[in-house]
Automatic annotation (TrEMBL):
<dbReference type="Pfam" id="PF03009">
    <property type="entry name" value="GDPD"/>
</dbReference>
<dbReference type="InterPro" id="IPR030395">
    <property type="entry name" value="GP_PDE_dom"/>
</dbReference>
<dbReference type="GO" id="GO:0008081">
    <property type="term" value="F:phosphoric diester hydrolase activity"/>
</dbReference>
<dbReference type="GO" id="GO:0006629">
    <property type="term" value="P:lipid metabolic process"/>
</dbReference>
<feature type="region of interest" description="Disordered">
    <location>
        <begin position="247"/>
        <end position="267"/>
    </location>
</feature>
<protein>
    <submittedName>
        <fullName>Glycerophosphodiester phosphodiesterase</fullName>
    </submittedName>
</protein>
<dbReference type="InterPro" id="IPR017946">
    <property type="entry name" value="PLC-like_Pdiesterase_TIM-brl"/>
</dbReference>
<feature type="domain" description="GP-PDE">
    <location>
        <begin position="1"/>
        <end position="237"/>
    </location>
</feature>
Length: 267
């Protein structure tokens, strides 16, 4: 099971901030989901809402503020306990701060058509220039954006973001030539996951904050979960992996039996 930090580490640090991404990165997280919107001056910035109000208290549209000014705002409005102010980063800021990232899901929200086209061009050009085809997936629920990205480059990895069972998310994702189906974990079923996998797609689910739910999704065949608590989830799965290795070493290479008999011999 692969773990993606949702908006960095939304449950552990201010969402979609450099401080949040670096917090998770220092604790071993190398996969992230983040939201991308174009600033006034045409820079892809990392923020979920089209307004600055919820995270900074400033009642302005992202489209009316430069990337530089956004970096100076205090974006911990929803995380008052965080110990220092932290601004809204650009996509480049995050990538520079977390150079060894394994994979990013960049979710593009619906916006005015002209702004979406500009953002699409910027992101695809960046992926091409830096050869990031294996490390970046552009995701969206906006079918127009996904079609535009596919027209620009057949090699770019795409993901369809689905919140509802109807219309069929698998059929929609396949029609858009997506490699990822990114869906609300509440609509997941074994049948949906199997259908997506049979059509060559990886299933990533959001927002999954309980270990019990992660394990259920893992049994269904879900490849990755997007969680507000990535460092806690990583600790759980790493501990499970280590324990599994210990059990296998006790069993030995030629037996699948319970390890308890060998423990009794040694005692």
């Amino acid at each position: 099971m692969l773990i993606y930090g949702h908006r960095g580490a939304k449950g552990e640090a201010p969402e979609n901030t450099l401080a949040g991404f670096m917090h998770a990165y220092r604790h071993g997280i190398r996969r992230f989901e983040m939201d991308i919107i174009l600033s006034q001056d045409g820079v892809p910035v990392v923020i979920h809402d089209r307004s600055l109000l919820r995270t900074t208290g400033s009642d302005r549209a992202v489209s009316s503020v430069s990337a530089l000014e956004m970096s100076t705002l205090d974006a911990r409005q929803n995380t008052a306990s965080w110990h220092h102010a932290t601004g809204i980063p650009s996509l480049d800021d995050v990538v520079q701060a977390c150079p060894d990232y394994r994979h990013l899901q960049l979710e593009v929200k619906s916006d005015e058509r002209g702004r979406l086209n500009r953002l699409c061009n910027r992101l695809v050009e960046w992926i091409q220039r830096e050869n990031l085809y294996e490390r970046i997936t552009l995701t969206s629920s906006n079918t127009g954006f996904l079609r535009s990205a596919r027209r620009l480059d057949r090699r770019v990895s795409l993901g369809y973001v689905a919140e509802r069972r109807f219309p069929s998310p698998v059929r929609q994702a396949k029609s858009l030539d997506c490699q990822y189906l990114c869906c609300n974990h509440r609509i997941c079923s074994a049948g949906l996951v199997s259908d997506a996998r049979n059509k060559g797609m990886s299933v990533s689910t959001w927002t999954v904050n309980r270990i019990h739910d992660m394990l259920m999704l893992e049994k269904m065949g879900v490849a990755s979960v997007i969680t507000d608590y990535p460092t806690s989830a990583l600790v759980y799965f790493e501990n499970r992996r280590r324990l599994g290795h210990q059990v296998e070493s006790l069993r030995g290479p030629e037996t699948d039996t319970d390890p308890e008999p060998s423990l009794r011999k040694s005692g």
